[in-house]
Amino acid sequence: MKTVNGRTTEYEIDDIFLKRHSPRAMSGEAISKQELMTLFEAARWAPSSRNLQPWKFIYAMRYTPEFETFLSFLVDGNRIWCVRAGTLIVTISKKTTKEDAPSPTHSFDSGSAWENFALQASRMNNIVVHGIGGIYRDLIKEKLNIPDDYNMEMMIAVGRPGKIEDLPEDLRLREKPNDRKPLEEIIYEGKFIQT
Predict the structure, then answer these.
(1) What's the mean pLDDT when you consider all of the chain?
(2) pTM for the structure as a whole
């Protein structure tokens, strides 16, 4: 057992998993194209069923006209803090294989790419990332011309660390690494048991 970042493990694991968390407090500063491409490079090397690599990232950097459009994709509770992000990213995944057969692991694989992205960010100085599910999927599909054979997964906010005081009061309370369920609630030996 160990404690890092206010999180305590049940078994010994690498610190990278405990250091990674999803801050909302961002400074409003831009991030460089080099930093962004480093994050995408890490995502590119995620495991992928049949090596299909179904994930796609569409991004808008701060101080571009597209950034305002990407802000409109977020529900109000997320837009309020994402206005200080350096880059906003839409993540989609292709639901079919090259042969147009259903790809049952497209979302799972895309989640692996997101995890690589997030872990790389946690290793970089002065970069924070936050995955976002509260988005207007139909609006994104329409505005970004997303074909029907792609699934809308999530958005990602990337930025520089900001001041917690700049967040609304309700979000300040959530601005710390959170805990996880104990192992006995997520693993089963031999068969699943509904609880």
Answers:
(1) 96
(2) 0.95
